[in-house]
User: Fold these one by one.
Assistant:
Number 1:
Amino acid sequence: MSLAEAPNIVRNKTIRIKHIRHGYCNSCGDCCNPDFRAARRAFYEASGIGYKLTHGEAGCPDFDSERGKCRDYSKRPMECVRFPRIPIDIMALPQCSYYFLSEITEV
Ligand code: SF4
Ligand code: SF4
């Protein structure tokens, strides 16, 4: 069904979509791994919300490429603790154990 064919009950309403994070961090290291940077950038750019990878192109100096993990995970910055914040953050991270559920409310 196209949007134009959607029932009237959906049209002419203003809704708010809230993405609620669930799950836990399994310390897989995918979010810090430069191997996934190009795929992540593609998702951000396609979404229109812009390219916003932590540490940019240089990557994080605390990433241990041999182990594929953070060198000091227990003391990682708050920005890393709060990751992921939105669903697109994890779209190119195959081992991430977080997931999001969406709550839709009419405003
Ligand atoms: S500080 Fe650790 S958790 Fe944060 S981006 Fe760097 S390697 Fe990843
Ligand atoms: S990809 Fe997800 S599960 Fe893996 S270290 Fe990052 S936040 Fe944790």
Note: The mean pLDDT is 86.
Number 2:
Amino acid sequence: MQTKKSRGLILYNRPFREDDKLVKIFTESSGKHMFFVRKAGKSRLSSVIQPLTVADFILKINESGLSYIEDYQEVTIFKEINADIYKLAYASYIVALADAAISDGFYDAHLFSFLVKTLELMDEGLDYEILTNIFEVQILERFGVWLNFHECALCHRVGLAFDFSYRYTGLLCPKHYDKDERRSHLDPNIFYLLDRFQSLHFDDLKTITIKADMKKKLRLFIDDIYDNYVGLRLKSKKFIDDLDKWGQIMK
Ligand SMILES: [Zn+2]
């Protein structure tokens, strides 16, 4: 067991025995680990172990069993996310996605920063649906899915009215549409945007606005990609889908 100082994001906590809790933390320096908090209700740690809390922790990390939280400081809470059921649902989904994408104990400081940055931007009020799409597209590689939304899979030309082909696991340009009679027949703007999402820097994001019908097309296509290549069934994603259905009825 070694003592480490690291930033960390609380992924979730769950009750364990009487009043103890198990807390999953994604740490910047050592990946994800499960921490044991004794008498969590009365513990001075009770506020810092809430989901979506970021802090600088001093941790006792055990590679093979439960780890322990020694101390913490510099706590960040995402107030705007916690105050809005939609933002909270999307934030919970990307956190669950990051949890599913890498195994426990696997060092991935880049994913950690990307996740925390995405949450910060959601909290600042940037479009949470688009932030979620960008996160979903960029995290595909962690699931072993490498999709190129930049060029035709056959001739590698760029900047054309592309369509997606499951047969070629990639884009087809108009000259090669006929290579797959079951190509997706989708709006080429979807792939223009996904290409941007794959290489996007967060500073560019503040200038992107996307209309509601295009957002819906992106949502449907990314769902198809996840169904076909990732095959995850996250409860937090189902919750978003249900929330959207209820949202439609309420309008
Ligand atoms: Zn081509």
Note: The pocket of zinc ion is lined by residues 152, 154-155, 157, 173, 175-176 (CB under 6 Å).
